Amino acid sequence: MKEVSLKYSLVSVTEGGNPHGDHPRTAGPRHQRLAGDPPQGQPLGGYLVAAWLAGIIVNLLLIPGSYDIALRDFGLLLAALTLARLATAFPTQRA
Predict the structure, then answer these.
(1) What confidence score (pLDDT) does residue 90 get?
(2) By C-alpha distance, which of 84, 56, 86, 49 is closest to 72?
(3) Among 54, 68, 86, 89, which lies 20 to 30 A Cα-Cα from 75?
């Protein structure tokens, strides 16, 4: 019979431990760390999403008949820019 490892169980995470053994903010792919908590302390996630949405809008404007979707995504772009601006205006204090 195979032995089952409980290294990645929910219990180890809920008890405050990280199953990967490192700090939770440093775990994960590099682009997630850059968007969420870059070394400079500036939250760039909103600007990253706004740039991504701008590319989608340009792509949609090249397709005839999809202007309504481009307009919807423009509203999402404005919301992302607003949230990014709020994140830089009211920085959080980290322990």
Answers:
(1) 80
(2) 56
(3) 89
pLDDT in tens, 23-38: 555 555 555 555 555 5
pTM of the model: 0.55
Task: Report in angstroms the alpha-carbon separations of 60 from 30, 31, 71, 76.
Answer: 29, 25, 9, 14
* Per-residue model confidence (pLDDT) at position 11: 45
Q: Where are the domains of the chain?
A: 29-89
Quote the tokens at residue 15. Answer: 């008890």
Q: Give the closest residue to 22 by CA, choosing from 31, 11, 33.
A: 33
- Give the residue ranges of DSSP H helices in the chain: 10-14, 30-36, 45-61, 67-89
**Cα 4 to Cα 12: distance, rounded to the nearest angstrom:** 15
